[in-house]
Amino acid sequence: MSSGRDESTMVLFDVDGTLTKPRNPVTGDMLQALEQLRERVEVALVGGSRIGLIEEQMGAEILRKVDYVFAENGLSAYRHGELFASTSIKETLGEQALQRLINECLYYIAALKIPHKRGTFIEFRTGMLNVSPIGRNCTQEERDAFEQYDKHHHVRQHMIEHLQQRLPDLPLVYSIGGQISFDVMPIGWTKEYTLRYLPDTQYRRIVFFGDKCYPGGNDWEIYSHVRVEGHAVSGPDDTLQQLHAMFLQEQS
Questions:
Q1: pTM over the 0.90 mark
Q2: 51: which DSSP letter?
Q3: Which residues take part in binding Mg(2+) (predicted)?
């Protein structure tokens, strides 16, 4: 590390759609930019996916190439490669409420008519449920096709509205992310959850880059948080351009 590293500044990145194209591996250019950035400031990643999927996209060594990795919105938190905190949706909601939510999702998907349906409609994660109307077993071509279909027919948004109407007593928040799914988690468990690990006594500046920085998107809560300097990007190329403009000009 550079002796001039500013350890009071944290640059925090969404993964899917920000550092990588959706469900694609990271490029060498992006890894090089992160390495250069880490010589100047502290660097962290926050993704809705479990740690194994983040490692698939970012490389098996990513836990040691950045300061923090927050998987599942920070409910599994790693520092310098070591897990130091973990929280479970099962313990928080309880089995009865969890089954109500799962059953309502499955009822809705069973009646849904869309161009394709595959398998793994609900993925149970440590801190959330990831719900996919098409199913996570779809091919990349089917994934791309659903994303375009959803832009016109708002399948995910309509499903979220249905769940909100059917389960108004459950303290849940729903956020759309990626191409084919949305996340369901207890209120306060969006990506802003990571801020509890980044005290303002240590980090005077927190900069966040994400691609779903709009109400209902899974980057919105942290992007708009009062402690955070949020920057919306359109994809990895835009992230690189903004990074170089803000932090890496002398190394460009």
A1: no
A2: H
A3: 14, 16, 211, 223
Contacts of 219 (CB under 8 A, 6+ apart): 14, 177, 191, 208, 210, 211, 212, 213, 232
Residue 1's pLDDT is what?
52
Q: Is position 40 annotated in a ligand binding site? A: no
The fold for domain 89-186 equals 3.30.1240
The boundaries of every CATH 3.30.1240.20 domain in the chain are 89-186
Query: If pLDDT is split at 50, 70 and 90, which confidence band does 252 have?
Result: very low
190-193-126 Cα angle (round to 5): 70
Q: Is 214 annotated as a binding residue?
A: no
Instruction: Please check if 219 is assigned to a binding site.
Output: no
Domain with CATH 3.40.50.1000 in the chain: 6-87+191-251
Query: What mean pLDDT is predicted for residues 183-209?
Result: 94
User: Per-residue b/e over 189-205, b at no fewer than 16 CB within 10 Å?
Assistant: bbbbbbbebbeeeebee
Determine the CATH number of domain 6-87+191-251. 3.40.50.1000
Query: What does the alpha-carbon distance between residue 7 and residue 205 come to, in Å, rounded to a whole number?
Result: 10
Catalytic residue set: 14, 16
Cβ proximity of 14 and 210 under 8 Å: yes
183 annotated as a binding-site residue? yes
The whole-number average pLDDT for the span 78-83 is 95
Is 238 marked as a binding-site residue?
Answer: no
C-alpha span between 124 and 129 (Å, rounded): 5
Cα angle value 189/161/215 (rounded, 5°):
55
**Residue among 88, 67, 66, 65 at smallest CA distance from 76:** 88
